[in-house]
Each structure stands twice: as C-alpha cells, then as structure tokens.
Backbone:
C-alpha cells in the first residue's frame, strides 16, 4: 500500500517527526537527540519483526501517553495518494476484485483508504499485524489466498518492496510485479514496472485477481 498507492511522506511524518517530538517533549531533551535515539530503537527491532510495523507497540515502548487513533486522526490530512492511483483503480475494479495486503495495522490502513475515498474500490483488506504474520513470509500470502478461496496462481500482486512484494509471493506461485517508482530503470526482471499505468497495460487481457 505505502509506496504503491500512498506516498511515503505520511509514514515518514509519523515515525520520524511526530514520535521523536512526543518523546523529546516527554523526556525534556532536544529533538535531534530524540530522533537519534528513536531511530536506533527502530533499527534494533527491524523490519523482519512484526512489532516494527505497529504504531501502538512503539507508543507503549516509548511510554508515550497518546493513542494511535489520536495521532492518525490529527495528521490524516497529510495522507497523499499518487497521481496514477484513482484512474488505475477505476479501470482495474471493472475487471478484477481488488484487495489490500499490508504490514500495517487496520487503523493505519483505514486512515489512508479514506483519502479520496479509495476504500470503495477494495473488496477486502489484509493486515499482517492483525493476523500475526509478517508480509514477507510465504505463510502470509498463502493465508491471503486461503481466505479468498483461490489458488496462488489466480492472484496478481504488486508492491514496492522487492523482497516482500515480489520475490516472496513468486515463491508460492503468485504472479507478482515489482513497482519501482524511484528509478528510471526496471529491476532485472520481466515483471518490473515504474507506475500503476505500466502495471495496467501489463494486465490487459490477463487473468486472475489483483491484490
């Protein structure tokens, strides 16, 4: 979802600005000191740990007296979708059942889906945090397919993480595309695209469900 539908600035704001500011204020330290400490704690957990994706976990970890919903509600206006999102979703939703597969919790996903009302295009939302799995695991994608009552070969997936969104799903038979918006060169792969418009062109005449 992030980096695919929604621009990363919102995540950067929450994790690298809002959380350090709250921590600095609580502990009466300089903001730069707080940022350095918080980044170090993020790195200790790492993206291979499910807790890394949970805002509630970090709020408790840093003993910040604020709830996830309060933060997300206050900064919801900062969410921004990519220019190619609405036209792509409008076109694909006519021929495919669209679903969201994300590492974030449902509250974090929900605040982003409300932007430009893109929620209306999606039939289901799958949150790794909510079901206790990391998106990179093969088991996450197999659980997703099982819930949709489809075979892996019937699912089409696109995302901006080369390992989590491309290599791993391909290992279980999912037709996966790697979205690299920041490069003028595709990854060494026949399934690398630079925009959702490119992705839509690849799907013309294709089969399966889009995730």
Residues:
């Amino acid at each position: 979802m992030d980096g695919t539908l929604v621009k990363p600035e919102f995540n950067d704001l929450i994790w690298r600005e809002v959380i350090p500011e709250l921590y600095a204020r609580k502990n009466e330290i300089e903001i730069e000191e707080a940022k350095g400490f918080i980044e170090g704690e993020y790195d200790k957990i790492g993206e291979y740990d499910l807790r890394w994706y949970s805002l509630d976990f970090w709020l408790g970890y840093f003993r910040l007296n604020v709830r996830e919903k309060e933060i997300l509600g206050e900064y919801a206006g900062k969410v921004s979708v990519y220019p190619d999102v609405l036209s792509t979703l409008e076109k694909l939703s006519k021929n495919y059942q669209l679903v969201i597969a994300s590492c974030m919790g449902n509250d974090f996903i929900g605040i982003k889906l409300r932007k430009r009302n893109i929620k209306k295009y999606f039939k289901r939302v799958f949150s790794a945090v909510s079901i206790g799995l990391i998106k990179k695991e093969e088991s996450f994608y197999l659980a997703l397919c099982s819930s949709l009552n489809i075979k892996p070969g019937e699912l089409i997936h696109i995302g901006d993480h080369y390992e989590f969104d491309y290599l791993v799903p391909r290992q279980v038979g999912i037709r996966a595309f790697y979205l690299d918006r920041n490069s003028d060169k595709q990854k060494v792969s026949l399934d690398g695209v630079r925009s959702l418009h490119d992705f839509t062109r690849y799907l013309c005449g294709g089969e399966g469900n889009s995730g």
Observations:
- Confidence is low (pLDDT under 50) at residues 206-211.
- DSSP finds ten helices and six strands in the chain.
- The chain has two domains: 9-77, 81-210.
- The longest strand covers residues 122-127.
